[in-house]
């Protein structure tokens, strides 16, 4: 079987559909579940197919010096700002294949442990309470993104990494730029890549300086743990540390912002579900999994065919790229009943919001913890929370989230 022709990628990711891309995803899933909009590129929209690719060792990540259809020109040294002694770009373990991925993830996992995450709970609760206290002092319309969804994850990841308070505004600016740079080239406005070059350089210089301080005077933060982590003599190089910090910044901040924002909007548009969660706060763990499925903070991920393979009966030649539409997979009726309905009582499904296989999100426990605390506290403090106006969406494709979410608290 060969690939099926399909409309171009621009049609799939038309900005006009940004507020609700799911009808477009559904059409692709039903008509061309493994589509070939151009030679060597496949768009995959079914849950079973996406999950299979994520678990299949025949699919991985292309080398950075190999152009691909979504980023035609390979990154230059300046674009990465992180190169090894041979001048080769250094990537986080998220973009590596075994055995490099295995080595780096094992090292980072030794520092980013479940006990380290669990002990953050009291601090997350206090931060959430403080933010809600600030919201309660306001009158009229409040932007939930500005007031809660952004500052909470920023504070958590900053404290986790040991970022001083005075540097957090700059930290957020870097995060925005780095997150936008994840999108494919065709979706980026002019100048974005140049801005990304500058941001990576600034962030790398900052982390180098802070890491040097932590080596000389370690604290209880994750950065201190990362600069000291070792396994049978193996350690993170400086550039591997920098790449890991960039990954933790985006994964530990931007995605959680979107989880809180997208989940709150979904609740406000489903009053019955809002009432259910408000009246039965013990449903919060189910609700967080449903938010992750219903409007996934991560909508897309890429894999390269490392050898000849197949997806859903479609032959995939070595070197081809597979664009996995996670947002579509999580609304596949073959994977979940009534997928376009929000149901906070739904038993957790095998959603793909955190991926699957060897690249399953290392920060999933932290994201779930922050979201659980935030939603419980928000609805307990403001039981009459309601939408004040239509929200605005960010332009990002891969990381789907709101720029603003206007609400009335009472």
UniProtKB/TrEMBL annotation:
It comes from the Bacteria. InterPro entries: Cyt_P450, Cyt_P450_B, Cyt_P450_CS, Cyt_P450_sf. Keywords: Heme, Iron, Metal-binding, Monooxygenase, Oxidoreductase. Belongs to the cytochrome P450 family. This is Cytochrome P450. It comes from Amycolatopsis minnesotensis.
